[in-house]
Amino acid sequence: MRRTVMGGAAAVAWCGLGLVSVAGAQQRRDTTELSPIVVTATRAPLAANRLGTRVTVLTAAELRAAGYATVAAALEGVAGLSVAQTSGPGSATSVFLRGGESDYVKVMVDGVPLNEPGGAYDFAHLTTDNVERIEIVRGPTSVVYGSDAVAGVVHLVTRAGGSRRAGHVRGGSYGTFEADAEIAGGDATASYGFTGAWRRSDGLYPVNSGYENANVAGRLRIAPSAGPTADLTIRSVNATYRYPTDGSGNVVDTNQHQLTRTTALGLTLGQRLHPRAEAHLALRSNAIGGGIEDPQDGPGDTLGAYAYRSQRDLDRQLVDLWVDWRVASALTLTGGGAYEHQRDRSTDEGQSDFGPYGSTTDARRHNWAAYAEAALVRGPATLTAGGRLDRNERFGTFVTWRAGASAMTPVGLRAFASAGTGFKEPTFFEQYGGSFVVGNPDLTPERTISWEVGLEQTLLGSRARMSAGWFGQRFRDLIQYAFTPVTPDGANYVNLAAANADGLEVEGTIDPGAGVRLGAQYTYLRTEVTDAGVLPDDDAAFREGDRLLRRPTHAVAFHARWDGQVVGAHGAVRWTGSRADADFATFPAVRVDLAAYTVVDAGVSVRPFGGRAPLGASAIELQVRNLFDVEYQMAYGFPAQGRVVLVGVRVGAGE
Prior knowledge:
The protein has 655 residues and is mainly beta. The chain contains five helices and 35 strands.
């Protein structure tokens, strides 16, 4: 019955948007919204309506209007994505794309990878500061980015240029306080944009609960009319998260906390070699540091793992060289190669009933890659195809491919399709282990093969758009932890498991005019474990025939925005269906279902100067998250935030 109801809701949303579109078609439009150019899906930038895969672009205007301070909050209403946060600000935050694992999403800022090598990315500390747009590309993109881009990519493109001098302060519930300042300027030849921000929150728990995040983001672009171009980006985060809970959500500790320090640097150089050929050299670096500090709570704290400390420093350095060659007016070929150096230096030490323990790791890996891609744009049709060869000194050689097609009809109906493969290399911990865990240096990458087909209809000169797409993914050679080693060398990690994910994504947006923008999305997702590997039959986390954890089967979201000259308002309603999870408070863990929930967000901003210079961008803001104070959980045992009311002031000029 629930599936029928949700399918009906999606149909009503689709028809409703269509009716509004037809009604609005009687009004003449003076401008046409062009399809955005996407820089993430392929090596050579293409318009979104030329791609064979679904892409969502969240603009700075949308992020600012909704008051989203974190990328995770902005992603919650995107079709095909589900977000799971264990608690309040600063707590572990995972993103699942089309049913894939949380480490199947490659996260980048201006092309710099933010993930740890082969690992998941914690979205807890990723903010929207200085973000021009967020591009979400669905489907495997290992052909373009190598490891980790298995289910898709979330790419932050930062801002440079324009004319902005602005400051923003807001505060409210849970002791929240946020402040940021930005400056930007320049022209077509040289431009810049820099932002500094600081945030804090008291957290959800009465003891040892709080979060602080200081970050700096900036971008500098130099593009003379003749000669080489340069694009430099930096993003640095320093965060402290205090939490009293154990892995199952029980309040057990009064002083443990986690430190996170990351610095992402990127430099991209471009040089035209010929009127039809341009070379690019990208230098990327990401330093990930931090760890957990958990000293004794007091002299009586002598039970269990009563003291613990860890420190981890991960480094990724990437050199990528490629050439775009426009062979003919309709055909562009791209070829290149990449080298990546990875290093993990980790230590952990602790005290327990059984005495002291600890481990140290200092490991390196090297990746080499060669790739090629072709894009043929002829009339209303576009064909893309590419292949990539990766070689790692640890797991050997791996080949990936991808092909896509898109075709537009005269009535604005577009059909698209794509298929491809992706892979995720093992993490350092899976290969080298740590305290009480034996790594397996012989692990091979996890792999996937995926496909999608869809239709997209545009109306009103692209002011209204409806789309639907069906997708499927097959995950193989999944790496799993075996408590009892099953290999002669005693390793705890093995390649054995498999799972499938299939689903439907339906989206619609309409811009009827007068500053109003409406949208809706529905996602149906079916996941299934097809091979549990060595895990016992009663394992709650990964059991054959069961759904994958923390991925809802159904999700619906509606959003509305009005941008007036003096007053602006926005609202969002998100319904998330039940999802499977596990209660890790018991051993073995017990499988549970998280209840469905509905969250409503709303906000209003008043620009007292009505857009008039020099303070036209200044505004007084009110943002409310979880308007009706709904109690719900994204991860079992960890309550989500209740109602959050934030009041702020934005002062400055420019956009």
